[in-house]
Write a structure and sequence with these properties.
Layout lengths: L24 H6 L10 E6 L6 H7 L5 E6 L6 H9 L3
Parallel strand pairs: 1-2
């Protein structure tokens, strides 16, 4: 009698380059024929620079899925605090 294969799900959170399927963790894991299947999800900000989904997709690393998000403010929150508190 054989034991059932172990089914394992793992989620890894990593930066854009590390989830790139062409050179990141998914690619390295894929070198092992016994490794479980991987899927890479990239969170890509949509901004004025990328007005279309195609432009944002072209700028994102290679991935199985791309989750488009609103672009975060690039403003330094400390600047606003300094204005409120006064420069010291």
């Amino acid at each position: 009698m054989r034991a059932a294969p172990l089914l394992l799900s793992v989620a890894a959170l990593a930066g854009n380059g590390h989830v790139d399927t062409r050179l990141g963790v998914p690619w390295i894991l894929g070198l092992n024929p016994d490794a479980p299947q991987t899927k890479a999800v990239v969170f890509a900000p949509v901004s004025r620079e990328y007005r279309t989904v195609e432009a944002a997709r072209a700028a994102a690393p290679a991935a199985d899925y791309i989750w488009f998000t609103p672009c975060a403010s690039l403003e330094d929150p400390c600047d606003r605090m300094r204005e409120t508190m006064g420069s010291h």
